[in-house]
Amino acid sequence: MVAVPQLQDSVRAELAPGGRLRAALNYSNTLLISTGGPDPTGVAPGLARELATRAGAVVEFVGYANAGLAADAASCDEWDVAFIGAEPQRAGEITFSPAYVEIEASYLVPAGSPLLRLEDVDRDGIHIATAARAAYTLFLQRTLRHAALVEAEGLPGAFDRFVEMKLDALAGLTPNLSANARKLPGARVLEGRFTAVQQSIGVPTNRVAAASYLKSFVAEITTSGRLRNLIAQHRVDGLSVVRG
Predict the structure, then answer these.
(1) Mean pLDDT of the 201-213 span
(2) Cα dist from 39 to 2, 45, 80, 84, 85, whole Å
(3) Is the pLDDT score of 1 beyond 90?
(4) Span 40-62, pLDDT tens digits
(5) Is this prediction's pTM over 0.70?
(6) How many CB atoms lie within 10 A of CB 43?
(7) 122 is in which domain, residue-wise?
(8) How many domains does the chain have?
(9) Residue 174 lies in a domain
């Protein structure tokens, strides 16, 4: 087991100023947040409560409709730690811990689709529905050369657009796509992944002591079994623990 240093006053002051740890949650990630509301449940809320306990603080959850909105708030003093995907486009305002879990992303295609493999998707004339500002969408914005993205609010919105506009593919986290496939007879998720979204704990870039502590915290939860126990407790499929 990796030893986690006791919280120094400098760490506690940055993680939980005034004895209150404000934890930003991306409510669109239902793999990490099982239920929302003022007392949310799931893997990320569990980790936030663990951090608050170690800091001797009260936890306060700050919910956002998507990870992009949470990232935007980094410079507005709305939260102290954020449980969102680590993306280069978010690193200007946020220092990310090493990833603690990753989630594969792929494509859902409709019945009878000629798209058989991941590499078939990035072609001229292909239109992909996707959730605006999701980490996997940011990845596709950087890497697609031919296919066009059609963005919507959240995965439910992207799914609706995929169906209503009869688009060629729907991008998303594989576990969520598998659930959506059951709603469409003949639809299938393409094998493999075009990326794996790494979930991290972020702090505003000026909180150097907190960022340093979170490296040790993530190392401890991923090797001690604490994280696996949380995943099992909430019966989540599709989360892969990242071992440093």
Answers:
(1) 96
(2) 30, 9, 17, 18, 22
(3) no
(4) 999 999 999 999 999 999 999 99
(5) yes
(6) 23
(7) 103-195
(8) 2
(9) yes
